[in-house]
C-alpha cells in the first residue's frame, strides 16, 4: 500500500494561503541576489502586525533557528538546559549544538510537563524550555499555571516558551504571553510560520522578549539567514487573516471530530490543543502502526510510549478513522 497520507511532522495539510504561492513565484527570478544581511525588514513587518516593540523581537530560520541563537546567547559551555521529556525532538539537538548539559525532566502521567520539577531544575540551569501546547502530547498549560511557573524561575535563567502550535488553542484560552516579557525579562516567547500559516518550508520563526535579551540573542544572528522569498511569503500570509482563521477552524474541527470518534471506539487519545493527537497507548503502538499503514497512513511512533498523529485533510482523517474503528 503506498503511503498517501503523511501525518508525521505536524504540517499543515493545506496549500499556502491565497496569493502566497503566486507571490513567491513572482519573486523567484531574484534568487541570484542575497537577502538582507540581517532580516530587519521582516522584523519590522512582524512587529507592526503584532503591535510588539521591534527592539524585543528576534527572527530566524524557523523557530528552531531562533531557539538555537537564544541558547548560544545564554547558556555557558556545560551549563544546564532543562526541558520535559518526551518533547520536541530538536531540544536535545539544540542542547548539543549550544554545548549545553541537557536536564530532562520526565513527563507526569497523562502527558503533562512537570512544571514544579522544571522550576526546581531551573535554579541551577542557564535555560529552561516549556513547550505549550506540548509536542507530542498536545497538552496545554493555561496562563495561570505558566505565570506561577515563571515566578519561580530565577531571573538569570532564560525561559523559552515554545508556542509553535498556539494558533490551534481555543481562542478564550490563549495566554497573553507576549505581555509577560515586561514582568519577566528572561522570558522568550517563540512562535513560527510553519504550522498554522503552513509555511514550514520557508523557515521563518520569531521570538518576543525583552530588549535586553533580544540584543544578546541578535548577537548570534546568522548573516543572510532568512530568504527574501520567505519574507515575501510571510508578508503575503499576514494579509490573509480571515482565510487563516477559516483554515485553523477547519483543522480544529477535524481534530475534535477525529478525537471524539477515536475515543468513542475505545482508543486512549488525549484531548489536544494542537494540530495533532497523542495516543496514550504505550502497549499498542505496533497494532496502531499496522492498522494505519494498511490504510496508507504514516504517523509517528514512539515505541512503549505512544503514537503521534498529525491532523490531515478530510480524506486523510477519514482514512485514519477507517483504519482504527
Ligand atoms: N517547536 C515545536 C514544539 C515543534 O513541534 C516544531 C516543529 N515540529 C517547531 C518548534 C519547529 O518549528 P520551525 O519550523 O519554526 O523551526
From TrEMBL:
Pfam families documented for this protein: Aminotran_1_2
In terms of superkingdom, the source organism counts as: Bacteria
Q: Looking at the keywords, is Transferase present?
A: yes
What SUPFAM superfamilies does the annotation carry?
A: PLP-dependent transferases
Classification via InterPro entries: Aminotransferase_I/II_large, HistidinolP_aminotransfase, PyrdxlP-dep_Trfase, PyrdxlP-dep_Trfase_major, PyrdxlP-dep_Trfase_small
What is this protein's record name? Aminotransferase class I/classII large domain-containing protein
Keyword annotations for this protein, in alphabetical order, are: Aminotransferase, Pyridoxal phosphate, Transferase
**Species per Swiss-Prot/TrEMBL record:** Streptomyces graminofaciens
Transmembrane segments annotated in the record for this chain: none
Q: Which parts of the sequence belong to the Aminotransferase class I/classII large domain?
A: 10-324
